Amino acid sequence: MTERIGEIIETDSFTFVAESFVLNRPPALGSLVKAQAGRDMWVYGVVAFGETVSVDPARGAMRRSRPGAYDDAVYASHPELEHLLHTKFTVIPVGSLAGGRISQRLPAQPPPMHYSVYACDADEVGRFSERRLYLRTLATAQVQVPLEHVLAAHLVWTYEQRGRDEAWLEQAALEVAGLLQQDVERLLAVLYAVDPEA
Amino acid sequence: MPLDLSAIHPHIQALVDLQRPERRQRLLREARNLLRRADADKVSDKLEKRQERYPWLVANPLKSLGDTFPVPPLPRGGYSVAASDGSNIPPDRHSPVQYCVLNMSKVVLAYGENPAASLGAVSEMLYSDEDLYVDGEPLKGELLGAKMAVRELEVLLETALALPAPRVALHDGTLILWRLQSASDGVRNRLLAPFRRALDGFLAERIPLMSYISFPSARDLCNALRVALCDTDPRECKTCKSDERELCEFLGELRDRELLQGVLKPAERTDLFATVSDVVKYYGGHEIIFCYMDVGGEIARVEMPRWVAEDEGALNLGLGVVLDQCALSGDVPPYPLALMEAHEAAVIDITMRAVVEELVEGEFARRGLPYIRSGKDRSKRRRGV
Lengths: 198, 385
Description:
A: 198 residues, six-stranded antiparallel beta barrel, B: 385 residues, alpha+beta, ten-stranded mixed beta sheet, two-stranded antiparallel sheet, 14 helices, 14 strands
């Protein structure tokens, strides 16, 4: 089993939000994660957003640094911040795993509230990304984030996880080009971002 | 028509003049001079020899009246601080069932090599007659306030006991439960017995207990200066012919924090004073000592048991932690961070209050029992037209 990285605190059929176990360290933007959705049923999703905010919405964060005590020193002199702040990340479900079989369809049920979110290791990323139908699900998700940057981050992250698989990246970039052909600006944003020379 | 600022401006100046007139400045100078030169022994003698108590609370100086001291820096290597505060849902007369909820926070902040924090609370529900009445008196208002202060101190001790030294316990508000002064012996005994036990516990474990009062309205030190000035009896104030009468009357309206503004520099404290409050007689020998401190933008009052005041290491550690916690709050005027978090952890917000009532109401419904609030309460909630 891979590492537990968070617990679900908001969940619906098309997105779920988890609280990260490590403050200020949500999983990488565009990375593939999974959550248990039932007995022998897992949801795969792509991290589309990360943020660190005050646990109590009525108490905003305020400046804590002092001359000579900033960055890490702020946390050393304010141990309470670990309890007053939390890091959350939003995941767009793009597939599932049931009975050992990977599907690039959305699961019938959203993952349950308070269930765990796990990182995916390179082998699992390799198996899931073998087919790329899920890129369409990702590109058309209805979320309040610039999806072209999520797509670009996902392509680069997966390319690295697959051992710098150039052939995979090329195919994936072509598929994204097909998906975004109506919107040249967004397409260029993805293509520039994934260019290994960029 | 916009506001005519030119018509208002001269009045703003007059308004400010009214706040700091020449006379006040002159009398403040005289009061501060008196603070420097007044004879502390004479004040103590007068307080001790007097048969009946003064009609005001008077600071009884342990050494001097006007000496000030820098608070020494904390030893390197960090410290742990425990803090507690409280909030409650009082018994509701309009409810068909009487209960009271107490919530005492337990906050720990640890600094040094392994910084750590723990923010939590102890929640309790009181519903038996034995709990809702103290020696026949209903647990509400001032009695509930005193009960909270006692429980907060008990929880604070329990929290502080688990900490490694150097450790300090911070309490919010006064340690002088003056409201219990006029309570019946039975009420006082029942509430003060656990309070005394908690004070015993801090002493037994040598945990410096510091009670922090922000923006104090006390006049104890000003009143000590009045005692120093007075050559007659305070019962004769109305017929007093002394030349010092104007200054004495001014001191009677002045607050200690106003007297000390500018006398203390940041991170300085006054000398130590004993309270003459009668209720302390029932503290089982635990006298309460206090001083004032400039915490950087505010003169705060810090109260402590006598043993802390007499143990230089405990006193300096306690006051140093108070100052450091103020600096960590990042606010001006500051407030100790641990107490701020203790307040946040103790608060029972309006949503939680409603949840508790819904839980009680739901349990009544589950058992098929009627839950009918008073007609008056119902009319206030419904507000039909």
